[in-house]
From TrEMBL, chain A:
Matches recorded under InterPro entries: ARM-like, ARM-type_fold
Organism of this sequence: Halanaerobium kushneri
The protein's name: HEAT repeat-containing protein
Keywords of the record: Membrane, Transmembrane, Transmembrane helix
Pfam families: HEAT_2
Keyword Transmembrane helix in record: yes
Transmembrane segments: 6-28
UniProtKB/TrEMBL annotation, chain B:
Keywords: DNA-binding, Phosphoprotein, Transcription, Transcription regulation, Two-component regulatory system
Entry superkingdom: Bacteria
Isomerase as UniProt keyword: no
Modified positions (4-aspartylphosphate) in chain numbering: D57
UniProt GO molecular function: phosphorelay response regulator activity; transcription cis-regulatory region binding
GO BP term, pick one: regulation of DNA-templated transcription
Source species: Halanaerobium kushneri
Name this polypeptide is given: Stage 0 sporulation protein A homolog
Amino acid sequence: MRTILYYAASVIMFLIVLVILTIIVYHLKNRRKEKKYQNQKKKWEHYLFKYLAEEINVEEAALKLNSNYFYLYDFIKPYLKNLKGDDFEKIKQLVKENGMNKFFLEKLEQGRKEEKIKAAVFLGKVEEKKALPLLEIYLDSDNKDLQTVSIWAIADIGEQRLFFKILKIVLKESRFTFEILTEILIRFGRDICGEIETFLKENFYQENKLEVILGVPEYQALSLFFDIFGYYRYHPGVQLMEPVLIPEYNNEVLIHIFKSLVKMEYPVDKDLSVFLSHDDWVVRSQTARYIGVINADGYLEELQVLINDSNWWVRYYSAWAILKTGNIDVLKDIIKSEKKGKEMSEYVLAQNNI
Amino acid sequence: MGDERDYKILIAEDDESISRLISYKFKNQNLESEVVTDGDQVLPEIEKGVYDALILDLMLPVLDGMSILNKIRENNIEIPVLILSARSQEKDILKALKSGADEYLTKPFRPEELIIRLKMLLDGVD
């Protein structure tokens, strides 16, 4: 019995030592690998900076940065993420020259799952159009991660042909919030506004057609489109907003219209009073804001009423709009005569250093 | 920009790849620079009084860029501050400018534009 116990204890001890040794070896190996990478990174950095400063040409730089493509990808990632303009274009040229694009195109086709994902991200960032046929196939992939990175990559490449295909996918997927949806779609670039305008002109005025085509309620699609118009200050888009700029229309869409108009600072030929008395406080506040932004005349009376609204933002934007439309004396008078709205008037004047 | 002396710039940026690239570009423009990566290193450096401008990332570890900016202005430290941030929303830009930032550049950025804006700031100070 004692011998068995002794034997068992020895085996356990041996296993513990073995595990500890394995951990140490693994750790040392990783440290060596990391050190090697850091040294390699320093060398790459030296040549990359020289290349960006035009001290060496692309061929020379490509010869110095042409191994360990996965590590090279990690090295180059922060520059692709943070730079634009000439330096970004130079890096794009470099990765084409040093074979990185070719390597990742192969990985996108034949790599393991995680390699495909990395390849899609990289090829999107460097706007490699040769990746498009595969990325398009991956839009229908059951692998949601691969599908998502393919969506972002196509948007980064800005392939307008696939805009509506991607739109249909992202609108149906609950994992994309409205903000993410907008971010994906604006990556296609300003030219996409023209595509949206044509699409809406063809389909918007036919009942339920948008819903049938895109598979989501009309208000969702319109909110998104109007947001994109606003982001790019696309003035021709206003003519498409005007027909639905009526108080009975969906609140969500009205809010997005006003937010876009604020960004565009574009005046519409509409009586805005009906929106200042809207049931939804967001519509009221955004209308007041818009009136201030475009410096619209004729709403002073309504704004003075709204300075006492139950909602803080409505009170704030009303006071702000009174100020922006050149009626500073009205605010001063409210304060002086201790009328309702005194507090907000004081707040807005102080905020504007008055 | 005056040619008489080199300017010294403090770069507060946690992405070392980017801060090193900026430093490299500065060197070619006769701009001397130091880099800090944590937010709590910024004020002690600034208080040395040797820097002509600060390039400040808003998302720094330990102490965020907005808190640093507020402290700089509360303490009446007169140093031009150029924000270099991935936050590109209008409200973030306005907030930083209202809090006393002199310039705001969003990432991704053009290093050449950063240098031009910085030089304009430095010219204004001179």
